[in-house]
Amino acid sequence: METQPFWLEESRPAVATRDLDHVDIAVVGAGITGCACAGALAREGRRVRVYDARGIGEGASGRNGGFALRGAAARYDVARETYGADAARELWRRTEETVDRLATIAGDAFRRTGSLRLAADVEERVEIQGEYEALRDDGFAAEWREELSHLRPDFRGAIFHPRDGAVQPAGLVQRLADLAAEAGVAFAPHHRIESLENVEADQIVIATDGSGRGLLPELDEALWPARGQVIATTPLRERLFECPHYARHGFDYWQQLRDRRIVLGGFRDFSILTEMTDDESTTEPIQEALDAFLVELLGELPEVTHRWAGIFGLTQDLLPLVGPVPGHDGVWVAAGYSGHGNVLGLLCGELVAGALLGRDDPLSQLFSPARLVQHV
Ligand SMILES: Cc1cc2nc3c(=O)[nH]c(=O)nc-3n(C[C@H](O)[C@H](O)[C@H](O)COP(=O)(O)OP(=O)(O)OC[C@H]3O[C@@H](n4cnc5c(N)ncnc54)[C@H](O)[C@@H]3O)c2cc1C
């Protein structure tokens, strides 16, 4: 049984090392965010080094469910109410553009499959109907699906999002790291930053999502680590799922890969308090819940070949923090995608690079770290 993610076994990101004496900008974290940010800065002529305590892409970016979805962690109708109609529309529009960009960057690590958001019960059906109507009202492509006979257990309707897709996330990181390296970025893997004081650079970008505890106390208050657990099976005989599926408010998610193996994650809410942690271990209760759900879904338990966990960053309003960290001149952050970071990580890595270069963006205010980070 493998305890490392299937993705990293299939494709472990690596780039040739390069020396740079002095850098203008240090990026902490070599996941989707850090690699996207570093590449964008280097293409504008900045000298950049990316540090990571582990190998490239070995954090959440190499451990996730492989869903590439538009939007953010909140439902679209809820986002309209919470963040404002204009802000929600802009956010969804930009994430749709970013899915297209991700598709171009990722190449064959991306498949444009669409995604299916399922209602597990009548209550959730009413909720996702609200989301479907809000999306259609604002001109976003979405299809209502009533016919779900390919699925066990019974679900109560679904939204099909036609422009979403499935990504091999470690493959995406590899492509982003290659682009960054080509633009001149130096990578320092297996180099933990213990204190920002020791980082020699004019500016620092923190791109650690849920795993950067201890770098700045203010960020520790605003970014809460959460653990997600995932399993992968041996390839099945049949193709049962054409696209990523998710249910119970996104708590449960699964997809079938090209080779017909299933990747299934979720059930964090079965033990929600113990899963608010940055300890990257799997646990019996969640792993058992994943196995039991596989049996419900498939009628039998296929061989499970990989079991792993990963850590992502949650925020109070489910939106990331992107921009300058209040009270720390020259320190920037892009993190806290609340479990939705494959597309948002790419968007926000490039967004924070733009902010650092002095560019304003309509999303800057929505994602401003000052809304959640108290200057202590
Ligand atoms: C189980 C799971 C399933 C998920 N499923 C999905 C999904 O299907 N779709 C989706 O969109 N999102 C999903 N997510 C969320 C998504 O994976 C993350 O939001 C995204 O990968 C964040 O990328 P990142 O580059 O910001 O952070 P990460 O990929 O976590 O990278 C942060 C890096 O910072 C490094 N680091 C931390 N502290 C230090 C330090 N002091 N010094 C040096 N380096 C440091 C870490 O080693 C790590 O490599 C999931 C997350 C998990 C855990």
Uncertain segments of ≥5 residues (pLDDT<50)?
Answer: none
Number of helices, counting only DSSP H or I runs of 4 residues or more = 9
Walk across the major sheet and give the strand order: 6-7-5-12-13-14-11-15
Percentage of residues in strands: 15-25%
Through-space gap between termini: 46 Å
Please give the largest β-sheet: 8 strands, mixed
Describe this structure as you would to a colleague:
- The chain is α/β, with parallel strands linked by helices.
- Helices cover 30% and strands 21% of the residues.
- A hairpin with a 6-residue loop joins strand 16 (321-324) and strand 17 (331-335).
- The radius of gyration is 20 Å and the shape is globular.
- It starts with 5 loop residues before the first helix and ends in a 20-residue tail after the last helix.
- The chain binds flavin-adenine dinucleotide.
- Residues 28-34, 51-54, 58-61, 63-67, 192-193, 207-209, 211-212, 215, 228, 230, 265, 310-312, 335, 337, 339-343, 345 line the site of flavin-adenine dinucleotide.
Brief characterization of the structure:
30% of the residues lie in helices and 21% in strands.
Detail the topology: elements first, then pairings:
Blueprint: H1 6-10, E1 23-28, H2 32-43, E2 48-51, E3 67-68, H3 76-83, H4 85-106, E4 110-111, E5 115-118, H5 122-137, E6 143-145, E7 158-161, E8 165-167, H6 169-182, E9 186-188, E10 201-206, H7 217-222, E11 224-233, E12 245-247, E13 252-256, E14 262-266, H8 284-298, E15 304-314, E16 321-324, E17 331-335, H9 341-356
Parallel strand pairs: 1-2, 1-10, 2-9, 5-12, 10-17
Antiparallel strand pairs: 3-8, 4-8, 5-7, 6-7, 11-14, 11-15, 12-13, 13-14, 16-17
Helix pairs in contact: 2-6, 2-9, 3-4, 3-5, 4-9
This protein binds flavin-adenine dinucleotide (FAD).
